Protein backbone atom coordinates (compact mmCIF):
# COMPACT_ATOMS: atom_id res chain seq x y z
CA UNK A 1 0.00 0.00 0.00
CA UNK A 2 1.14 3.49 -0.88
CA UNK A 3 -0.18 6.45 1.10
CA UNK A 4 -0.45 9.81 -0.64
CA UNK A 5 -0.54 12.49 2.06
CA UNK A 6 -2.46 15.70 1.30
CA UNK A 7 -3.53 18.50 3.60
CA UNK A 8 -6.04 21.03 2.31
CA UNK A 9 -7.76 24.26 3.26
CA UNK A 10 -10.42 26.11 1.25
CA UNK A 11 -9.05 25.07 -2.15
CA UNK A 12 -11.90 22.87 -3.35
CA UNK A 13 -11.73 24.22 -6.91
CA UNK A 14 -8.12 23.07 -7.21
CA UNK A 15 -8.59 19.89 -5.17
CA UNK A 16 -11.34 18.76 -7.53
CA UNK A 17 -8.94 18.85 -10.49
CA UNK A 18 -6.13 17.27 -8.46
CA UNK A 19 -8.32 14.32 -7.42
CA UNK A 20 -9.35 13.85 -11.06
CA UNK A 21 -5.64 13.31 -11.76
CA UNK A 22 -5.49 10.54 -9.15
CA UNK A 23 -8.49 8.91 -10.77
CA UNK A 24 -6.36 8.59 -13.93
CA UNK A 25 -3.39 6.85 -12.27
CA UNK A 26 -1.91 3.81 -14.03
CA UNK A 27 -1.04 2.22 -10.65
CA UNK A 28 -4.12 1.68 -8.49
CA UNK A 29 -3.00 0.29 -5.11
CA UNK A 30 -2.85 3.49 -3.13
CA UNK A 31 -4.81 5.47 -0.58
CA UNK A 32 -5.31 9.22 -0.44
CA UNK A 33 -5.00 10.51 3.11
CA UNK A 34 -6.69 13.92 3.01
CA UNK A 35 -6.74 16.09 6.10
CA UNK A 36 -9.07 19.06 5.80
CA UNK A 37 -7.80 21.88 8.01
CA UNK A 38 -11.18 23.42 8.81
CA UNK A 39 -12.29 24.36 5.28
CA UNK A 40 -15.42 26.49 5.01
CA UNK A 41 -15.94 25.96 1.26
CA UNK A 42 -17.34 22.80 -0.40
CA UNK A 43 -14.23 20.66 0.16
CA UNK A 44 -16.26 17.90 1.86
CA UNK A 45 -18.57 17.63 -1.16
CA UNK A 46 -15.61 17.46 -3.56
CA UNK A 47 -14.02 14.63 -1.56
CA UNK A 48 -17.34 12.79 -1.40
CA UNK A 49 -17.60 13.04 -5.19
CA UNK A 50 -14.51 10.81 -5.55
CA UNK A 51 -15.08 8.33 -2.71
CA UNK A 52 -16.58 5.70 -5.04
CA UNK A 53 -13.65 5.76 -7.47
CA UNK A 54 -10.70 6.42 -5.13
CA UNK A 55 -9.57 4.91 -1.83
CA UNK A 56 -9.87 8.07 0.30
CA UNK A 57 -9.15 8.36 4.01
CA UNK A 58 -10.65 11.78 4.82
CA UNK A 59 -10.39 13.60 8.13
CA UNK A 60 -11.87 17.01 8.96
CA UNK A 61 -10.23 18.93 11.82
CA UNK A 62 -10.78 22.36 13.31
CA UNK A 63 -8.50 25.01 11.79
CA UNK A 64 -5.05 24.32 13.23
CA UNK A 65 -2.51 25.37 10.59
CA UNK A 66 -0.65 23.48 7.91
CA UNK A 67 1.91 21.86 10.24
CA UNK A 68 -0.71 20.17 12.40
CA UNK A 69 -2.74 19.21 9.34
CA UNK A 70 0.30 17.61 7.69
CA UNK A 71 1.04 15.85 10.98
CA UNK A 72 -2.45 14.35 10.98
CA UNK A 73 -1.81 12.86 7.53
CA UNK A 74 1.13 10.97 9.04
CA UNK A 75 -1.05 9.74 11.91
CA UNK A 76 -3.75 8.41 9.59
CA UNK A 77 -1.66 6.81 6.84
CA UNK A 78 -1.69 3.00 6.62
CA UNK A 79 0.90 2.39 3.89
CA UNK A 80 4.63 1.76 4.05
CA UNK A 81 5.49 4.09 1.18
CA UNK A 82 4.63 7.74 1.72
CA UNK A 83 4.17 10.23 -1.11
CA UNK A 84 3.75 13.78 0.16
CA UNK A 85 1.80 15.97 -2.24
CA UNK A 86 -0.34 19.12 -2.25
CA UNK A 87 -4.01 19.76 -2.88
CA UNK A 88 -3.31 21.89 -5.96
CA UNK A 89 -0.90 19.59 -7.82
CA UNK A 90 -2.23 17.42 -10.63
CA UNK A 91 -0.27 14.15 -10.85
CA UNK A 92 0.87 12.81 -14.21
CA UNK A 93 -0.71 9.47 -15.17
CA UNK A 94 2.29 7.44 -13.94
CA UNK A 95 2.97 9.60 -10.88
CA UNK A 96 2.44 6.91 -8.24
CA UNK A 97 3.93 4.17 -10.39
CA UNK A 98 7.13 6.17 -10.91
CA UNK A 99 7.56 6.92 -7.21
CA UNK A 100 6.91 3.24 -6.42
CA UNK A 101 9.53 2.04 -8.91
CA UNK A 102 12.18 4.11 -7.13
CA UNK A 103 11.04 3.12 -3.65
CA UNK A 104 11.08 -0.56 -4.63
CA UNK A 105 14.85 -0.30 -5.10
CA UNK A 106 15.20 -0.55 -1.32
CA UNK A 107 17.60 2.38 -0.96
CA UNK A 108 17.25 4.68 2.01
CA UNK A 109 16.31 7.62 -0.17
CA UNK A 110 13.89 10.49 -0.45
CA UNK A 111 12.77 10.92 -4.04
CA UNK A 112 12.00 14.48 -5.12
CA UNK A 113 9.59 14.47 -8.03
CA UNK A 114 9.59 17.04 -10.80
CA UNK A 115 7.28 20.03 -10.45
CA UNK A 116 5.79 21.85 -13.43
CA UNK A 117 3.42 24.80 -13.63
CA UNK A 118 -0.04 24.76 -15.16
CA UNK A 119 -2.96 27.19 -15.19
CA UNK A 120 -6.45 25.91 -14.46
CA UNK A 121 -8.03 29.23 -13.52
CA UNK A 122 -6.83 32.63 -14.71
CA UNK A 123 -6.80 35.50 -12.23
CA UNK A 124 -5.14 38.85 -12.87
CA UNK A 125 -3.62 38.77 -9.35
CA UNK A 126 -1.51 35.69 -10.14
CA UNK A 127 2.17 36.47 -10.56
CA UNK A 128 3.46 34.71 -13.68
CA UNK A 129 6.92 34.39 -15.12
CA UNK A 130 7.35 36.93 -17.92
CA UNK A 131 7.48 34.32 -20.73
CA UNK A 132 4.63 32.27 -19.23
CA UNK A 133 2.33 35.29 -19.18
CA UNK A 134 3.15 36.24 -22.78
CA UNK A 135 2.53 32.64 -23.83
CA UNK A 136 -0.91 32.82 -22.23
CA UNK A 137 -1.90 36.07 -23.93
CA UNK A 138 -0.77 34.77 -27.32
CA UNK A 139 -2.83 31.63 -26.89
CA UNK A 140 -5.82 33.18 -25.10
CA UNK A 141 -6.06 36.91 -26.00
CA UNK A 142 -9.35 37.23 -24.09
CA UNK A 143 -7.29 37.01 -20.88
CA UNK A 144 -5.99 40.50 -21.60
CA UNK A 145 -9.33 41.75 -20.25
CA UNK A 146 -8.12 40.64 -16.81
CA UNK A 147 -11.33 38.86 -15.85
CA UNK A 148 -11.16 35.64 -13.84
CA UNK A 149 -11.78 32.61 -16.04
CA UNK A 150 -11.82 28.86 -15.42
CA UNK A 151 -9.74 27.36 -18.23
CA UNK A 152 -10.36 23.66 -17.64
CA UNK A 153 -12.25 21.41 -15.23
CA UNK A 154 -11.89 18.03 -13.51
CA UNK A 155 -13.91 16.42 -16.31
CA UNK A 156 -11.31 17.61 -18.84
CA UNK A 157 -8.53 15.89 -16.89
CA UNK A 158 -10.53 12.65 -16.76
CA UNK A 159 -11.56 12.73 -20.42
CA UNK A 160 -8.38 14.02 -22.07
CA UNK A 161 -5.50 14.96 -19.81
CA UNK A 162 -3.06 15.10 -22.76
CA UNK A 163 -5.02 17.96 -24.32
CA UNK A 164 -5.09 19.79 -20.97
CA UNK A 165 -1.30 19.56 -20.72
CA UNK A 166 -0.87 20.71 -24.31
CA UNK A 167 -3.09 23.75 -23.88
CA UNK A 168 -2.42 24.92 -20.32
CA UNK A 169 1.10 23.81 -19.34
CA UNK A 170 3.25 26.85 -18.54
CA UNK A 171 6.82 25.79 -17.72
CA UNK A 172 9.02 23.80 -15.37
CA UNK A 173 9.34 25.13 -11.83
CA UNK A 174 12.82 26.60 -11.53
CA UNK A 175 12.63 28.99 -8.57
CA UNK A 176 13.96 26.44 -6.06
CA UNK A 177 17.15 26.12 -8.17
CA UNK A 178 16.85 22.33 -7.93
CA UNK A 179 16.84 21.71 -11.68
CA UNK A 180 20.08 23.68 -11.98
CA UNK A 181 21.66 21.42 -9.36
CA UNK A 182 20.35 18.36 -11.21
CA UNK A 183 22.16 19.60 -14.32
CA UNK A 184 25.35 19.86 -12.29
CA UNK A 185 25.16 16.68 -10.19
CA UNK A 186 22.77 14.41 -12.10
CA UNK A 187 19.50 12.93 -10.87
CA UNK A 188 21.26 11.03 -8.06
CA UNK A 189 22.45 14.41 -6.70
CA UNK A 190 25.77 12.88 -5.67
CA UNK A 191 27.93 15.68 -4.32
CA UNK A 192 24.95 17.81 -3.31
CA UNK A 193 24.56 17.22 0.44
CA UNK A 194 22.31 20.28 0.76
CA UNK A 195 19.66 18.62 -1.42
CA UNK A 196 17.36 18.34 1.62
CA UNK A 197 16.98 22.14 1.43
CA UNK A 198 15.21 21.76 -1.94
CA UNK A 199 12.92 18.87 -0.94
CA UNK A 200 9.59 20.58 -0.40
CA UNK A 201 6.28 19.04 0.61
CA UNK A 202 4.54 19.12 -2.75
CA UNK A 203 6.20 16.13 -4.43
CA UNK A 204 8.46 13.75 -2.51
CA UNK A 205 8.39 10.13 -1.35
CA UNK A 206 10.14 7.79 1.06
CA UNK A 207 9.77 4.40 2.76
CA UNK A 208 8.65 5.06 6.35
CA UNK A 209 10.05 1.68 7.49
CA UNK A 210 13.55 3.03 6.97
CA UNK A 211 13.05 5.79 9.55
CA UNK A 212 15.08 5.36 12.72
CA UNK A 213 13.07 7.93 14.69
CA UNK A 214 9.56 9.32 14.64
CA UNK A 215 8.95 12.09 12.12
CA UNK A 216 6.94 15.11 13.16
CA UNK A 217 5.69 18.34 11.66
CA UNK A 218 6.65 21.08 14.09
CA UNK A 219 3.53 23.10 14.96
CA UNK A 220 5.69 26.11 15.86
CA UNK A 221 5.73 26.98 12.17
CA UNK A 222 2.89 29.42 11.67
CA UNK A 223 1.28 30.30 8.37
CA UNK A 224 2.98 29.36 5.13
CA UNK A 225 6.29 27.64 4.49
CA UNK A 226 9.39 25.90 5.94
CA UNK A 227 7.54 23.19 7.90
CA UNK A 228 8.28 20.92 4.94
CA UNK A 229 11.98 21.90 4.85
CA UNK A 230 12.19 21.03 8.55
CA UNK A 231 10.58 17.66 7.76
CA UNK A 232 13.08 16.98 4.98
CA UNK A 233 15.95 17.94 7.29
CA UNK A 234 14.70 15.38 9.81
CA UNK A 235 14.92 12.73 7.10
CA UNK A 236 18.43 13.90 6.22
CA UNK A 237 19.52 13.67 9.87
CA UNK A 238 18.21 10.09 9.90
CA UNK A 239 20.55 9.17 7.06
CA UNK A 240 18.28 9.43 4.03
CA UNK A 241 19.89 10.39 0.74
CA UNK A 242 18.01 12.66 -1.63
CA UNK A 243 17.44 11.84 -5.30
CA UNK A 244 15.62 13.66 -8.09
CA UNK A 245 13.04 11.75 -10.15
CA UNK A 246 12.35 13.37 -13.50
CA UNK A 247 9.38 11.12 -14.37
CA UNK A 248 7.39 11.54 -11.14
CA UNK A 249 5.79 14.77 -12.33
CA UNK A 250 2.99 16.80 -10.87
CA UNK A 251 1.61 20.08 -12.15
CA UNK A 252 1.08 22.96 -9.75
CA UNK A 253 -2.08 24.91 -10.52
CA UNK A 254 -0.91 28.50 -10.31
CA UNK A 255 -3.10 30.67 -8.09
CA UNK A 256 -3.22 33.96 -6.24
CA UNK A 257 -0.80 34.17 -3.31
CA UNK A 258 -1.28 35.81 0.06
CA UNK A 259 0.34 39.23 0.30
CA UNK A 260 1.73 38.10 3.66
CA UNK A 261 3.33 34.90 2.31
CA UNK A 262 6.96 36.05 2.15
CA UNK A 263 6.78 37.54 5.64
CA UNK A 264 5.47 34.21 6.96
CA UNK A 265 8.28 32.34 5.21
CA UNK A 266 10.88 34.72 6.67
CA UNK A 267 9.60 34.26 10.23
CA UNK A 268 9.44 30.49 9.85
CA UNK A 269 12.91 30.37 8.33
CA UNK A 270 14.32 32.34 11.28
CA UNK A 271 12.73 29.79 13.61
CA UNK A 272 14.19 26.91 11.57
CA UNK A 273 17.72 28.36 11.70
CA UNK A 274 17.49 28.95 15.46
CA UNK A 275 16.17 25.43 15.97
CA UNK A 276 18.91 23.72 13.93
CA UNK A 277 22.15 25.58 14.57
CA UNK A 278 24.29 23.34 12.39
CA UNK A 279 26.85 24.21 9.74
CA UNK A 280 24.74 23.06 6.78
CA UNK A 281 21.78 25.11 7.98
CA UNK A 282 23.97 28.20 8.44
CA UNK A 283 25.31 27.78 4.91
CA UNK A 284 21.77 27.40 3.59
CA UNK A 285 20.89 30.66 5.36
CA UNK A 286 23.86 32.39 3.69
CA UNK A 287 22.44 31.30 0.35
CA UNK A 288 18.93 32.53 1.22
CA UNK A 289 20.37 35.84 2.49
CA UNK A 290 22.25 36.33 -0.79
CA UNK A 291 25.71 36.21 0.82
CA UNK A 292 26.90 33.22 -1.22
CA UNK A 293 25.35 31.09 -3.95
CA UNK A 294 23.83 27.66 -3.37
CA UNK A 295 26.73 26.11 -5.31
CA UNK A 296 29.29 27.90 -3.13
CA UNK A 297 27.50 26.88 0.07
CA UNK A 298 27.36 23.29 -1.11
CA UNK A 299 31.02 23.22 -2.23
CA UNK A 300 32.19 24.75 1.05
CA UNK A 301 30.20 22.20 3.05
CA UNK A 302 31.61 19.36 0.92
CA UNK A 303 35.19 20.54 1.50
CA UNK A 304 34.73 20.89 5.25
CA UNK A 305 33.02 17.53 5.70
CA UNK A 306 35.71 15.73 3.67
CA UNK A 307 38.81 17.65 4.71
CA UNK A 308 37.83 19.48 7.90
CA UNK A 309 40.45 17.78 10.06
CA UNK A 310 43.22 18.66 7.63
CA UNK A 311 42.11 22.31 7.43
CA UNK A 312 41.18 22.87 11.06
CA UNK A 313 44.44 24.50 12.20
CA UNK A 314 44.66 26.77 9.16
CA UNK A 315 41.02 27.85 9.56
CA UNK A 316 41.68 28.80 13.19
CA UNK A 317 44.78 30.80 12.15
CA UNK A 318 42.79 32.59 9.44
CA UNK A 319 40.05 33.51 11.88
CA UNK A 320 42.58 34.81 14.41
CA UNK A 321 44.25 36.97 11.74
CA UNK A 322 40.88 38.29 10.64
CA UNK A 323 39.94 39.06 14.24
CA UNK A 324 43.17 41.01 14.79
CA UNK A 325 42.67 42.92 11.52
CA UNK A 326 39.16 43.96 12.56
CA UNK A 327 40.47 45.33 15.87
Name the helicity range: 40-55%
The CATH first-level class of the largest domain comes to Alpha Beta
Low-confidence stretches: none
Q: Can you identify the CATH superfamily of the largest domain?
A: Spore Coat Polysaccharide Biosynthesis Protein SpsA, Chain A
The sequence of SSEs as H and E is EHEHEHEEHEEHEHEHEHEHHH
Beginning-to-end CA distance, first to last residue? 63 Å
Write the CATH fold name of the largest domain: Spore Coat Polysaccharide Biosynthesis Protein SpsA, Chain A
> Can you tell me the CATH architecture of the largest domain?
Alpha-Beta Complex
Structural class: alpha/beta
Q: How many extended strands?
A: 11
> Percent of residues in beta strands?
15-25%
State mean pLDDT (0 to 100 scale): 94
Counted by DSSP, the helix tally is 11
What does the largest sheet look like? 9 strands, mixed
How many structural units, i.e. domains? Answer: 2
Categorize the overall geometry: globular
Radius of gyration: 21 Å
How is this structure best described in words?
This protein is of the alpha/beta class. The chain has two domains: 2-275, Spore Coat Polysaccharide Biosynthesis Protein SpsA, Chain A (Alpha-Beta Complex), CATH 3.90.550; 279-326, no CATH class. 43% of the residues lie in helices and 20% in strands. It is built from eleven helices and eleven strands. It has helices at 12-23, 43-50, 66-76, 95-103, 130-139, 154-168, 178-185, 227-237, 261-275, 279-288, 294-326, and strands spanning 2-8, 30-37, 56-61, 81-85, 89-91, 109-118, 121-122, 149-150, 169-172, 203-207, 241-253. The strands form two sheets. Strands 1, 2, 3, 4, 5, 6, 9, 10 and 11 form a nine-stranded mixed sheet that branches. Strands 7-8 form a two-stranded antiparallel ribbon. α1 links the parallel β1 and β2. α1 (12-23) crosses α6 and α10 crosses α11 (294-326). The radius of gyration is 21 Å and the shape is globular.
Amino acid sequence: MISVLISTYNKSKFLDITLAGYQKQSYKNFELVIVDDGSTDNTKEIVKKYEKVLNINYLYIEKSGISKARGKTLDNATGNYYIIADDDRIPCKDFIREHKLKLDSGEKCVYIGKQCLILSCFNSDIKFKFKDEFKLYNKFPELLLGEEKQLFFASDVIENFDDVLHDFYLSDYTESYLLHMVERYGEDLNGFPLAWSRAYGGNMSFDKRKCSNELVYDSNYKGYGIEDVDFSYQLYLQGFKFRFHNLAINYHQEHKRSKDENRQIFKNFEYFCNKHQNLDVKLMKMDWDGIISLEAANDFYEILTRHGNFLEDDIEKLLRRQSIKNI
